[in-house]
Write a structure and sequence with these properties.
Low-confidence stretches: none
CATH class of the largest domain: Alpha Beta
Distance between the termini: 49 Å
Largest sheet: 10 strands, mixed
Mean pLDDT: 92
Oligomer: single chain
CATH superfamily of the largest domain: Adenylosuccinate Synthetase, subunit A, domain 3
CATH architecture of the largest domain: Alpha-Beta Complex
Bound molecules: inosinic acid
Shape: globular
Number of strands: 20
Strand order of the largest sheet: 9-7-5-2-10-1-11-15-19-20
């Protein structure tokens, strides 16, 4: 493939020229056009549904971290769409979807995603952009993920085995990294050969049973992927900087959840990117000054997949009931999710970390079938009550949840369309979440469909 074999799609070529005054200053400085949707728990908070729902208010939807470890499910009428890399805005015609430098891209998975959207009647063409700066997941990353997760010593992290951690590790290490744009450069073959040699030594050294990597086969395979992906690849950073200066409205779609943030989550049982609100600017290249609203998404209860402490986990019949009612099985891996009560200590921490304006509380219908519900309002750590989320997992492991118990509302809420029409028990629950987290619940979801969503306060559709 030739140097820059991809089409360079500029802001002007998509939206037309930016308006500037005679000194070259763009006109729209007073508009702050960015909104973020961030998970406040351990991922799987149904962010994809919310992004899809809000998309019609925006011109551009942006994915800025994570990769094929994410699984965003969006239900529209009788169709279910499963997205891994592509922003959920792809389901709304006329919206531009941008995958930025902070995302790690697995080409075969992305191409499957594009094909399965096409098979469902969704066109993926000029409405998708992939950053040439995004790093690429190669077969050696997946091989390393399998070996390294088993080698953590203690409890396994339980990664999604999508090569995410090893790819980010190579990004930071630089010597063995390949970015999407590199796949179109003349030295692509020699770089793969060089890296495959080093990876073969590494994988043998750490006891991988996998067969030796065949550099020539990988080059051939990835060159074919590159040919199909070339039309989407561009410099998304300039595109987005032009877009915000021109006053275009951007929606940033977080993947995973804040408690899985590499720096601020339950390390080492986290993912390898900044999955909380702090990751938006780093991953996308859009400065924080262009973001004026952050919506924190949480389930009305808690779930977690993979290893690591989970203070409110319910390893009992109630946990199983929540799993069954909420269909709590991973979109990406199919693994059963661990389920537990809403943890207000954890969510207050992540709400502050991500700087949220309001909460979107999802899956309220699932709790509707329980005779009583509990909220964790504090932890007891070594005999002392605390409302601070600890920085070390060993301390978190020793935390005993302090619960408040509320009567359940035991009524079908799936057809309720206004928050004020929810049963009184459900409204009390929302009020208590608001008080404990310190931010208002302004969106409530009572089922997977777009229609099963209620808005209040600043989020009221107008
Ligand atoms: P990795 O991101 O595959 O490295 O996995 C690291 C941890 O994050 C594991 O506990 C995974 O189960 C978890 N994880 C990664 N992606 C997601 C997600 O999209 N939803 C929920 N958990 C995730």
């Amino acid at each position: 493939m030739s140097l820059n074999g991809w089409a360079d799609r500029t802001y002007d070529s998509v939206f037309g020229p930016i308006r500037r005054n005679r000194l070259g200053v763009s006109r729209w400085r007073s508009i702050v056009p960015g909104t973020c949707v961030i998970g406040l728990q351990w991922g799987d908070e149904a962010k994809g549904k919310l992004v899809d729902l809000l998309t019609s208010r925006f011109e551009i939807v942006v994915r800025y971290q994570g990769g094929a470890n994410a699984g965003h499910t969006v239900v529209v009428g009788d169709k279910t769409y499963k997205l891994h890399h592509i922003p959920s805005g792809i389901l709304t015609p006329g919206v531009m979807n941008v995958v930025t430098p902070g995302v790690v891209i697995n080409p075969p998975t992305l191409l499957k995603e594009i094909d399965s959207l096409a098979a469902q009647g969704i066109d993926v063409g000029s409405n998708l952009m992939l950053s040439d700066r995004a790093h690429v997941v190669f077969p050696w990353h997946i091989a390393e993920d399998k070996v390294m997760d088993q080698a953590t010593g203690g409890e396994s992290i339980g990664t999604t085995l999508r090569g995410i951690g090893p790819c980010y590790r190579d990004k930071v290490g630089r010597a063995h990294a390949i970015r999407l744009g590199d796949m179109f450069r003349p030295d692509f073959r020699t770089r793969v050969e060089h890296i495959a040699r080093a990876k073969n030594r590494l994988l043998t050294g750490i006891g991988s049973q996998s067969e030796a990597l065949d550099a020539a086969a990988i080059v051939a395979e990835y060159t074919a992927y590159g040919e199909r992906l070339a039309r989407y690849v561009t410099d998304t950073t300039h595109f987005l900087l032009d877009a915000v200066e021109a006053g275009k409205r951007l929606l940033f779609e977080g993947a995973q959840g804040s408690l899985l943030d590499i720096d601020h989550g339950t390390f080492p049982y986290v993912t390898s990117s900044n999955a909380s609100g702090v990751g938006v600017s780093g991953g996308s290249g859009v400065p924080g000054r262009w973001i004026n609203k952050v919506i924190g998404v949480a389930k009305a209860y808690s779930t977690r997949v993979g290893g690591g402490p989970f203070p409110t986990e319910l390893d009992n019949d109630i946990g199983q009931k929540i799993r069954d009612l909420g269909r709590e099985y991973g979109t990406t891996t199919g693994r059963p999710r661990r389920c537990g009560w809403f943890d207000a200590v954890a969510v207050r921490y992540t709400a502050r970390l991500s700087g949220i304006d309001c909460i979107s509380l999802m899956m309220m219908d699932v709790l509707s079938q329980l005779s009583e519900v509990r909220i964790c309002v504090a932890y007891e750590l070594d005999g002392r009550r605390t409302d601070r989320f600890p920085s070390h997992v060993d301390d978190l492991r020793r935390c005993q949840p302090v619960y408040e118990t509320m009567p359940g509302w035991q009524a079908d809420v799936t057809k309720v369309r206004r928050i004020e029409d929810l049963p009184v028990g459900a409204r009390r629950y929302l009020d208590r979440v608001t008080q404990l987290v310190g931010k208002p619940v302004e969106i409530v979801s009572v089922g997977p469909d777009r229609a099963q969503t209620m808005f209040a306060g600043s989020m009221q559709q107008g």
